[in-house]
Automatic annotation (TrEMBL):
It comes from the Bacteria. Keywords: Dioxygenase, Oxidoreductase. This is Glyoxalase/bleomycin resistance/extradiol dioxygenase family protein. It comes from Singulisphaera sp. Ch08. Gene3D superfamilies: 2,3-Dihydroxybiphenyl 1,2-Dioxygenase, domain 1. Residues 13-122 form the VOC domain.
Length: 127
């Protein structure tokens, strides 16, 4: 199973096209060097980033990064967890959770500016 970012979405009122950051430069550095995103575009207060099929935005918009959360659907939670452990970003433990009656493997990570991420993959149970 390939490590592949497939989709993203908000948790709560977070706008994944404008994830709040305090400064664009350091945030872009973290998202590209640690989280594996590529820079698509950038100006003084915003940036667009991409990893596989997922595109997100960063914005210096006055919002509190500690109040922002989003999820990413990935092809292989275990491989991504190992990647992030190797980069020492401190991913949480991998857990099994249910959403809308379906089981998922998930882990959480928080970037240094406060945005919380949930990385998830559907769990296929053998019958």
């Amino acid at each position: 199973m390939a490590l592949f970012f497939k989709a993203t979405g908000p948790i709560g009122d977070t706008d994944t096209n404008a994830l709040p950051v305090r400064e664009i430069g350091p945030a872009v550095g973290y998202y590209t060097q640690c989280l594996g995103f590529s820079l698509v575009s950038k100006d003084k207060t915003t940036a667009r980033l991409r990893r596989d099929d997922v595109e997100i935005g960063l914005a210096v918009n006055g919002q509190d990064p500690e109040q922002a959360s989003c999820w990413f659907s990935v092809g292989n939670v275990d491989a991504l967890h190992r990647e992030y452990e190797a980069k020492e970003i401190g991913p949480g433990i991998i857990d099994e959770q249910e959403y809308d009656g379906k089981p998922y493997r998930v882990f959480f990570a928080k970037e240094p500016y406060g945005v919380c991420f949930c990385f998830t993959h559907p769990l296929v149970r053998e019958s």
